[in-house]
Backbone:
């Protein structure tokens, strides 16, 4: 408790409260002063509560504070679980009630400020159901809910933008890159201006080009409008097709049916719709309203822990048990009277359930039928898009098949013609190859003759001259055509400009009046802007000072919070060690030998004995190893000598075998010589 009071005093001595309290002065505060202090803290969180509590009744003060604490989701501690006791302590200014509230509020002031700000816009106003029957009230309530959802989305986007934090280095790089691009574009524009200034009538040409660009933009907009109108026409044709299909279906239904059957169908539909309107939909609506009411009550209540949920489950089980007992008593009490009607009640309930089930099946069947109709319309529209016509039926399909047969015969004839043409094409290709070969041979002969006469390349240069002259004539014709086209375009543009000037003359007159108004408004805007700039400069200076103060307070808060968390961790470690020591003492003092064995001291003593026995065994083993070390080393030395001796014997044996093999080879060579 002393740590809690010390924390409260430290927070109240800081910004923005500056109360200059110590533990003694804070503890000596009266109930009204404590309530005013709590109200000041709440006023810092929500400025609407910054009032003097002496100017309002205690009940109003308690109600206002309880409503704000409920919005902030404050839950009283376990020692004050009764809400009436908590309310009474809040009215009287009881220290055991107000101190925990102050501690909780000062711990998370920034978070609670944000929650109080959001509560101003997100706490929904409850409108009674009878008022919502009015159309205007229902529309306003709907707009209110839509605005609330829009505020939620905007607040989320704002928080995301605050946390995203664009890098200043990236922004600077982008700005430098854009400045470089701007300089390059300025240089390009200057170069183009210098090029254009050398051309005659360049101003007029620029004006014509500007008008041409405007006309192209207008052409693009008109093309876009044309495409939109085509889409609208396509959708209208689809609607028309659907309406025609529905009309055909209605005609078929009218032709095949009689007035009596139509009246019967209408009566059945009316009965079904009346059942839905009078029984089913009101019952479902009532259940939805009840569930929404209970959900709103659950949301309005403060957050609950697992222990509270367990208590509620126990209460629910007790109430269910009491309800079952009361039902059994009632059945035992009224059994002889109700026995006559029990059978009829059961039958009525079974029939009502069957009726509801059939109504649901009928509704599902209608929805399925509507969905299949929509799918059918979609498929027909797709088929019309692919084929370009409606799906054929009956005689139309037969006529279509006959047309396809005639087209098939025509296709076969054309295919034969194509085969003949391909054969002829092969012959012509072969003749072309032969002619090319002959042409190459003639060219070689001609080149040889030119080389003999000393005029090599004459035919090639003549062909090049003829080709260049032909190209030049074509270019001259193209230049002439382009000049004619440009002159016609200039004439058209001049006429269009004249028409536009004539049509824009009244608009220009109106524009002059609007320019005068614009000048007056700009003067007024400049005056207002000067006032705004002066006011904004003052507010900006105040904001910078406040930001510095807030930054210092945030740093202090972070440091204090880290100290608080470190102290809490140390406290938890000490509590765990103390708990372990208590459990160890309890197990050590316990008369039960099983409990004693669980004690850590007993476990460690057993482990020490085991380690001592193991050490004794290892020392004995070490002693044996030391005693047998000398003989063992001698034995190893003997084995190593024996190994060297055997290795020498093996080498001598191998040398002897090699010498014997060489002697045999020499003897065989001598025998061969003697034979020769």
Residues:
């Amino acid at each position: 408790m002393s740590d809690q009071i010390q924390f409260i005093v430290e927070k109240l001595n800081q910004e923005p409260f500056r109360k200059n309290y110590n533990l003694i002065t804070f503890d000596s505060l009266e109930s009204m002063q404590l309530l005013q202090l709590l109200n000041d803290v709440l006023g810092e969180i929500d400025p609407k509560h910054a009032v003097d509590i002496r100017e309002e009744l205690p009940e109003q003060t308690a109600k206002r504070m309880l409503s704000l604490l409920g919005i902030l989701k404050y839950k009283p501690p376990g020692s004050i679980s009764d809400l009436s006791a908590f309310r009474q302590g809040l009215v009287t200014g009881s220290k055991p009630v107000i101190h925990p509230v102050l501690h909780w509020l000062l711990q998370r002031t920034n978070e609670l400020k944000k929650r109080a700000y959001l509560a101003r816009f997100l706490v929904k106003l409850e409108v009674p159901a009878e008022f919502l029957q009015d159309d205007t009230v229902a529309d306003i309530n709907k707009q209110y809910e839509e605005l609330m959802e829009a505020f939620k989305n905007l607040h989320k986007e704002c928080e995301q933008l605050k946390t995203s934090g664009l890098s200043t280095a990236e922004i600077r790089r982008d700005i430098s890159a854009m400045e470089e691009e701007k300089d390059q574009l300025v240089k390009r524009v200057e170069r183009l201006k210098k090029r254009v200034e050398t051309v005659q009538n360049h101003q007029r040409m620029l004006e014509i080009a500007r008008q041409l660009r405007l006309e192209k933009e207008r052409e693009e907009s008109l093309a876009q409008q044309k495409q939109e109108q085509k889409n609208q026409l396509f959708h209208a044709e689809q609607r028309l097709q659907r309406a025609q299909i529905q009309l055909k279906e209605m005609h078929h239904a009218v032709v095949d049916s009689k007035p009596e059957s139509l009246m019967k169908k209408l009566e059945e539909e009316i009965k079904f719709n009346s059942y839905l309107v009078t029984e089913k939909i009101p019952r479902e609506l009532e259940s939805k309203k009840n569930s929404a009411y209970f959900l709103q009550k659950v949301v309005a209540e403060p957050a609950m822990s697992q222990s509270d949920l367990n208590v509620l489950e126990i209460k629910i089980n007790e109430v269910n048990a009491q309800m079952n007992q009361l039902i059994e008593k009632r059945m035992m009490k009224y059994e002889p009277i109700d026995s006559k009607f029990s059978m009829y009640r059961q039958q009525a309930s079974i029939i009502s359930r069957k009726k509801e089930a059939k109504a649901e099946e009928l509704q599902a069947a209608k929805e399925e039928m509507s969905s299949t109709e929509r799918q059918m319309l979609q498929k027909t529209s797709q088929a019309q898009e692919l084929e370009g016509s409606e799906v054929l039926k009956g005689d139309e399909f037969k006529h279509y098949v006959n047309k396809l047969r005639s087209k098939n015969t025509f296709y076969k004839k054309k295919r034969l013609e194509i085969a003949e043409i391909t054969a002829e094409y092969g012959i012509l290709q072969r003749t072309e190859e032969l002619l090319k070969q002959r042409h190459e041979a003639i060219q070689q002969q001609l080149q040889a003759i030119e080389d003999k006469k000393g005029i090599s390349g004459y035919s090639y240069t003549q062909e090049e001259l003829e080709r260049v002259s032909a190209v030049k004539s074509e270019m001259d014709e193209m230049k002439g055509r382009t000049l004619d086209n440009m002159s016609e375009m200039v004439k058209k543009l001049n006429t269009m400009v004249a028409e536009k000037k004539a049509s824009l003359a009244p608009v220009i007159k109106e524009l002059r009046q609007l320019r005068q108004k614009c000048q007056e408004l700009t003067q007024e805007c400049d005056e207002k802007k000067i006032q705004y700039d002066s006011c904004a400069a003052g507010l900006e200076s105040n904001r910078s000072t406040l930001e510095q103060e807030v930054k210092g307070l945030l740093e202090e808060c972070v440091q204090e919070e880290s100290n608080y968390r470190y102290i809490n961790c140390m406290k938890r470690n000490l509590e765990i060690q103390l708990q372990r020591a208590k459990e160890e003492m309890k197990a050590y003092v316990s008369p039960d030998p099983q409990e004693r064995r669980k004690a850590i001291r007993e476990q460690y003593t057993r482990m020490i004995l085991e380690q001592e026995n193991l050490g004794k065994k290892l020392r004995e083993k070490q002693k044996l190893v030391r005693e047998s070390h000398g003989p063992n080393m001698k034995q190893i030395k003997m084995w190593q000598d024996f190994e060297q001796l055997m290795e020498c014997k093996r080498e001598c044996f191998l040398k002897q075998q090699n010498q014997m093999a060489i002697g045999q080879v020499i003897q065989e060579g001598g025998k061969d010589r003697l034979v020769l």
The chain is about 90% helix and 0% strand. The radius of gyration is 52 Å.
